[in-house]
Structures are given as structure tokens and as C-alpha cells.
Amino acid sequence: MDTESWQLLEEGLRKTMATASGGELDAALSDLGWLDMLDEMPDTAIPLVFRLLGETGAHAPVLNDVVLRAAGRVGGGTVPLPYAGGAWVVWERKGLPGPALGGDLPIQRVTDGEPVPLAAGRQALGWWLVGTSRSMLSLARQHALDRVQFGRPVASFQAIRHRLAETLVAVEGAEATLLAASDDLGCLMGKAAAGQAALTAARHCQQVLGGIGFTAEHELHRHVKRALVLDGLLGSARELTREAGAILRAQGSAPRLVRL
Predict the structure, then answer these.
(1) Could you tell me which residue ranges the Acyl-CoA dehydrogenase/oxidase C-terminal domain spans (predicted)?
(2) pTM higher than 0.85, yes or no?
(3) What is the 3-state secondary structure (H, E, C) of 138-171?
(4) Cβ–Cβ < 8 Å for 179, 187
(5) CA–CA gap between residue 159 and residue 80 (Å, rounded)
(6) What is the CA radius of gyration of the chain?
(7) What is the DSSP letter of 107?
(8) What is the DSSP letter of 71?
(9) What crossing angle do the helices spanning 63-70 and 119-146 adopt, rounded to 10°?
């Protein structure tokens, strides 16, 4: 796909996600050929679609498709997914947000599920978390530029700059890890890095925004809730970091993730 076609695709997806969410967006993505893209160019379709979900704040149950395809099954359905703490959930394709996990998404708790391939799903969630983190950072940065105290924009204060810089470093590091991921361990570490970056973004951006960041009228709280839910899916950052450490101890060595 050439650069112009890629830009048109991204622009079209962004506009679609800006006007639809949930089941409506699921249907719209299907009409746009999401499943075909997932089959023919997963390495580009997954980062693009899931990053845009994070940036726009929309949601769709397309994580099911990624996991089902990785398992060699037909997309368009649902599959039980492991959640942090040994729980299992199902991301419904239709219906209203469920009471589980804060009532933000149509996710329902289930008693158990069968093991499924996790690498592709973790990579997809990692890109979603990166997109969400960038949205939080953008909101905080704009507030810091607009908000004036003592006759100066708060963006000129060193403490504010440090929080924004630490957030950017965490997000860029997570994105680099996801780009380098090429196997199960790489995807595990990418998801862990993205989850940690999202938690860092939520903490720092909340502090930069101050009181307005706690209000229901501001967009930040939606991204924070989304980040907390997505971090727990297919293993939280804390759990995956421990799992990666156990794998490396068992192997006795650490693989080279990137050749510089």
C-alpha cells in the first residue's frame, strides 16, 4: 500500500471512529473490510486500527477477531479472554455496557475459558493502550499551554514539563517495544510496556490537569477508565512483567529484541 492510500485509509478509519462506537463501529469496520485486512496485512492493520481506537476514544469488540484468527478460527464471534487476577471475561459484540469492570464496555465476567493464543491479542491491546496514552498526553499538554498561573502558562513550570516528558518517554518506549515484537515474548513485553505507559500517562496527566481532570465533563476520565480495563485484559503490566522475568530466568539469557 503506497503512502497516499495509507493516509486515506487512516483518515477514513479515524472519521468512522469519531462518529460511531460499540456495535455500530463493529459493523462499520466490517463494511470497510476489517476482517480482510486482518487476514491479508495483520502487521499493518492491527497497529492502525487499535491505535486509532485509543486515540479517538471509541471502542469495538474487534479484539475477538484478532484472537480468533490467531487460533485459526472464523472471525465475527466472541471468545472468553483471560483477565488479571485469574478471571475470565467475554467482550460482547452487541448489547449495552455490562456492570463488570466499571460499566464502560460490554464486557461480562464468565466462570472460565479455554486457553487461546495470546501474542497477537496482546500486541493489539498494546497499540490500543499506546493510542489512549497519546490522547491523555495531548489533553494534558494542551491544558498546560492554555492554563495561566502567576502570569505564565503552566507549561513553563519545570514540574509540569517533567511529568509530560516522563509520559512521552514511556509512550515512545512502549511503541518501540511493540514495533520490535516478533514472537510471544516480544508481544508479552510490548503489552507490559504499553500497560505501564498508560498507567504512567494517567497518573502524570491527572496531576497536570489538576481539579478539572477529575470532572465528568472532561475527557480524561474516560481514557483513564479505558486504560485500566485494557491493562488487565490478557494480563496486566505487573503480571506480564513477572511472567517475562520467570521466562528469562528459566532460559538463562535475554534475547536481543532489536539489532542496533
Answers:
(1) 118-235
(2) yes
(3) HHHHHHHHHCEECCEEHHHCHHHHHHHHHHHHHH
(4) no
(5) 43
(6) 19
(7) E
(8) T
(9) 150
